[in-house]
Design a protein that fits this description.
heterodimer, A: 351 residues, 2 strands, B: alpha/beta, Rossmann fold, 6-stranded mixed sheet, 4-stranded antiparallel sheet, 16% strand
Chain lengths: 351, 520
């Protein structure tokens, strides 16, 4: 018997359990992505996760950290999974492999490993890939579940040929942007390209796991219900996108997309519930989480509306990641018995 | 609760702010066992430190026979409490033995061998309401009553504070938010009238106007028993509070019931409130009405390893092993023994440690009850900044940042963000998914800071002494020099006078005379 510090009890939560529940919440949207985009999507998902695991083993080995423990805490698998969700579904194998390795080695371990990274590994990897390989990263696929290649044909796509030109097309945000540069107004360019119902169910071009908004929403709410994530960041994120979109589209409907089109396009739902809520790279304080989510949403809308890229989420999240430590510092909760300024309360006032 | 005015905004804030945790209660193990008495052991061990403050000073010697309730060690200093013999018997001596202390180090204790007669000093019944507040305080002090919720602060010190400042509100703490513990629950159920009477006595002593008994709503029987016992006393109200750890913390309980916050670094008295544990109130009832000092208490013996978990009334000084034996011993190997509750209790290294006035529980916990958290980093993972600790902290601290600063050796910075406001409740460690022993860091850092303060004070004292010595030496040197100068001046003056005399004499006398006058 030896003397040990209290408490002598512990809650049921563990890091592995948290990661597992997040993965569980991702399963429905992932399966929907597999169903819509076929075997190449499955291969990409496997390659990205495998790449993250190999990179994690490599990095922990070099750093002298317990490799077995690191592999089993689930964080590397989750990074790979989230990265795969954000990649074009038929991306070639080396996009997934390179992205996974970059996420783990550069974004995570060069910053000190689990819990120390400043940027969300999946988003940093996506941004690196997007600016390095713009062609491969913007080949969007019409979701055509009945015309998908078989498992063997898919191998050829993943490990060689890539997306056949005939099957590739722009996403809604890309389409709207390119039409706008030609001077075509939204009223015209939207025709036949957007329906809220179809987008909600995932009948649209987009990354492997971002198109099934409703399934992602379900998974996200499951995490909220399990108390793995709070509602502050997702709600603020959605509001940050929807509010300016609502205002702008009301003022100039032929120039600005409406809130629903924004919420159901690109990776808003995926990012609001699964990416921006990343513990390590988001603020820890309640007020800070509101600010962070709002900032992510607002930046997403700004980049989408005026930026060079049709989709702005990865940039928005990374920019806000960089501000998270500062936000934390200025939004500390009020300490019991002290005022906001940190000074002890005046007894006469609290009497 | 309707009568308690809490501003609507505070009510809203209360809904949004979800501090605290809901640890698995495990109170059902013992909640329905009535209080049994543990027989006298072969030897009672009475540590001289059973309270916060200076240890008591023994006034008995080896071989002396004492009676129950006889004073055997007197209070020493302003925040201290005397110790009385829990039964009649012979004093074996005073020795260094294992005592309940976080350090695990032995401490001085009076050893008493019971003679089995349990003969008591004669006592008399007194009407408390005929006594003055000062009289009640004095009698409570003489009875050696300390806070029985575990804090062991001498109760009389609080009472006499109540006579100096206006304290209209008494809150009795029946929160008992620690998992497993049911000793207060049983006391409130079985001896509700004693608790209510104790509340009235304290109110009388401090001239207060209302007593509110805060009980967590997971103890409906206790609430009902207190309510029926208080039916005829309009100044005493029972308030059900949510079962949420650490609701039994003084700050949280006051805030919940009254909506007022104790200012940082302040006391409840600053906002017109006094808090006493329900067990303390019952002890005050017995001390004032029947002149009984505090020599026994109710202890919950529980945990997955105990064969028959139950509540027992036990004499202070009884070794923990005797309690365990009385409860049928162990049915499985215990991974840890804890004195108190699992959230704030102390892990004990020996079952020969005795029950003291503040011991509410003895837990023999199985490995899966303890969880895998240790006092070191070996079992802990890296912080993933999940902020569970931030959301759970009842004080509004950021435990993850404090721990990071402490780990980096930046104690002063951790104080800046609230280390000294930490109440050590253990909520952050409990929720941490990486099993980081956060409270351990904080307690360690607080200890380190206290040691630094002591060292600084010591250095200051040494420096003062040294400065004084230097000043004294300088003074002496100066005085010496002055004296020397004075003597020199006198000598010169004398010489000059002599010379002047001589010159005058020479002028008036012949050289021959002069040589006669000054023989060579």
């Amino acid at each position: 018997m030896n003397v040990i510090s209290s408490p002598h009890a512990h809650g049921a939560r563990s890091v592995g359990r948290v990661m597992l529940l997040v993965m569980l919440a991702l399963v429905p949207a992932t399966l929907a992505g597999f169903w819509r985009f076929g075997w190449p999507a499955v291969y990409l998902w496997l390659i990205t996760i495998l790449s993250c695991l190999v990179a994690e083993a490599f990095a922990t080995r070099i750093r002298g950290i317990d490799t077995g423990r690191a592999l089993f805490d689930g964080s590397a698998v989750l990074t790979g999974w989230l990265l795969a969700m954000s990649l074009p579904p038929w991306a070639p194998w080396w996009i997934g492999a390179l992205g996974g390795a970059f996420a783990i080695v550069v974004t995570k371990h060069l910053f000190g490993g689990l819990g120390q990274n400043l940027f969300n590994p999946a988003m940093a990897a996506r941004v690196m890939l997007l600016i390095s390989f713009p062609v491969e990263m913007t080949q969007w696929l019409l979701p055509t579940p009945d015309a998908l290649p078989g498992a063997m044909d898919a191998l050829a796509i993943t490990f060689g040929a890539g997306v056949p030109d005939a099957m590739s097309s722009a996403s809604l945000l890309g389409h709207v942007k390119s039409e706008a540069t030609k001077g075509i107004l939204l009223d015209q360019s939207l025709i036949g390209h957007f329906s809220a119902g179809g987008f909600g169910l995932g009948e649209r071009q987009g990354s492997l796991g971002e198109t099934s908004a409703l399934l992602l929403l379900g998974g996200g709410l499951f995490l909220v219900f399990q108390r793995i994530i709070g509602l502050r960041i997702p709600l603020a994120f959605l509001a940050g996108v929807a509010l300016p979109a609502a205002i702008a589209s009301t003022a100039a409907p032929s120039h600005y997309l409406g809130p629903l089109a924004h919420l159901l396009s690109g990776g808003v739902i995926l990012a609001a519930f699964f990416i921006a809520t990343d513990y390590v790279t988001s603020p820890s304080t309640p007020l800070g989480q509101w600010i962070f989510g709002l900032g992510c949403g607002l930046l997403t809308w700004i980049i989408r509306t005026w930026g060079a890229y049709p989709e702005g989420i990865a940039f928005a999240v990374m920019l806000m990641n960089a501000t998270a430590p500062l936000i934390d510092q200025y939004t500390r909760p009020r300490i019991f018995g002290r005022g906001r300024d940190g000074r002890a309360l005046n007894p006469a006032q609290s009497r | 609760m309707g009568s308690l005015a809490i501003p609507p905004l505070a009510r809203l804030a209360r809904l949004l702010n979800s501090w605290g945790v809901h640890p698995e209660g495990r109170k059902q193990l013992t909640a329905d066992t009535s209080i049994a008495r543990v027989p006298l052991p072969a030897r009672l061990v009475l540590p001289l430190s059973q309270h916060i403050g200076a240890p008591a000073r023994p006034i008995v010697e080896a071989g002396q026979r004492v009676l129950r309730n006889q004073l055997i060690a007197e209070a020493q200093g302003a925040i201290s409490a005397p110790i009385h013999a829990p039964t009649s018997g012979t004093i074996l001596g005073i020795a260094e033995v294992p005592v309940p202390h976080a350090s695990g180090l032995p401490g001085p204790a009076i050893l008493l061998e019971p003679d089995g007669l349990d003969e008591a000093l004669p006592s008399e019944e007194i009407d408390p309401f005929s006594l003055s507040g000062e009289d009640i305080s004095r009698r409570v002090a003489e009875a050696g009553i300390v806070g029985m919720g575990g804090a062991t602060f001498p109760a009389a010190v609080k009472l006499s504070l109540g006579q100096k400042t206006r304290i209209p509100t008494l809150i009795l703490n029946g929160g008992e938010c620690e998992p497993y513990l049911t000793c207060d629950d049983r006391l409130m159920r079985d001896r509700a009238d004693q608790v209510i009477d104790g509340a009235l006595i304290i109110l009388h002593a401090i001239g207060g106007s209302e007593a509110l008994i805060g009980v967590e709503n997971n103890k409906p029987e206790a609430i009902a028993a207190l309510q029926s016992a208080a039916a005829d006393t309009p100044t005493v109200k029972v308030v059900a509070v949510p079962s949420r750890y650490p609701m039994g913390s003084e700050k949280q309980l006051i805030e919940w019931i009254t909506g007022r916050e104790i200012p940082a670094g302040g006391r409840p008295a600053d906002i017109g409130v006094m808090v006493q544990n329900v067990g303390t109130a019952a002890a005050i009832h017995r001390a004032i009405r029947y002149g009984e000092p505090l020599t026994s208490r109710i202890v919950t013996v529980s945990g997955g390893a105990v064969r028959t978990p139950r509540n027992v009334e036990v004499r202070v000084g009884t070794p923990l092993s005797a309690l365990l034996d009385f409860c049928g011993g162990l049915k499985a190997e215990a991974a840890r023994y804890v004195m108190g509750g699992p959230m704030m209790g102390m892990s004990v290294s020996s079952l020969e440690i005795p029950v003291i006035k503040g011991s509410g529980g003895l837990l023999a916990l199985l490995a899966d009850e303890v969880g895998s958290q240790g006092a070191d980093d070996a079992s802990a993972g890296p912080c993933i900044r999940c902020a569970s600790c931030v959301g759970a902290c009842p004080i509004g601290l950021m435990p993850l940042d404090m721990a990071a600063l402490i780990k980096g050796g930046e104690l002063a910075a951790s104080v800046d963000i609230g280390l000294k406001d930490c109440i050590g409740c253990g909520t952050c460690s409990y929720v941490c998914p990486s099993k980081i022993p956060l409270v351990h860091y904080f307690n360690h850092a607080k200890g380190e800071l206290a040691a630094q303060d002591r060292a600084r004070m010591k250095q200051d004292a040494i420096k003062q002494l040294a400065d004084a010595r230097t000043a004294r030496m300088e003074q002496e040197a100066r005085e010496k020099a002055e004296a020397a100068a004075r003597r020199k001046a006198e000598r010169e003056k004398a010489k000059a006078e002599a010379a002047a005399k001589k010159a005058a004499a020479e002028a008036s006398t012949s050289p021959a005379n002069a040589s006669e006058e000054s023989p060579a």
